Amino acid sequence: MEKINVTVKNESGLHARPASLFVKEAGKFESEIFIVKDDKEVNGKSIMGVMSLGAKSGTELTIKAEGSDAKEALEALEQLIKSNFGE
């Protein structure tokens, strides 16, 4: 399993639009993708799961991926977060 740590930096955090962008990007990969915040782990391909984290600006998250394209998935998702979801 591959994993990275990221910090949500866009002002509004992982609200509906960024969460949907994250899920859409995660869905492009075969690997299983999970997001961990504190002790809660959710499926990174589930819009309800991602939004249930309530990740605000400044929140640290761990993104984990397992599968044949795990490394590529993490790179793409990290880029998406670093770009502040285009906000």
From TrEMBL:
Functional note: General (non sugar-specific) component of the phosphoenolpyruvate-dependent sugar phosphotransferase system (sugar PTS). This major carbohydrate active-transport system catalyzes the phosphorylation of incoming sugar substrates concomitantly with their translocation across the cell membrane. The phosphoryl group from phosphoenolpyruvate (PEP) is transferred to the phosphoryl carrier protein HPr by enzyme I. Phospho-HPr then transfers it to the PTS EIIA domain.
Major subcellular site: cytoplasm
Organism: Proteinivorax hydrogeniformans
PROSITE patterns for the chain: PTS_HPR_DOM, PTS_HPR_HIS, PTS_HPR_SER
Superkingdom to which the source organism belongs: Bacteria
Domain HPr: from-to ranges: 1-87
Pfam family, one: PTS-HPr
Alphabetical list of PANTHER family matching this protein: PHOSPHOCARRIER PROTEIN HPR (PTHR33705), PHOSPHOCARRIER PROTEIN NPR (PTHR33705:SF2)
Name recorded for this polypeptide: Phosphocarrier protein HPr
GO BP of this protein: phosphoenolpyruvate-dependent sugar phosphotransferase system
GO cellular component, one term: cytoplasm
Subcellular location: Cytoplasm
SUPFAM superfamilies from the UniProt entry: HPr-like (SSF55594)
Keywords assigned: Cytoplasm, Phosphotransferase system
InterPro entries: HPr (IPR050399), HPr-like (IPR000032), HPr-like_sf (IPR035895), PTS_HPr_His_P_site (IPR001020), PTS_HPr_Ser_P_site (IPR002114)
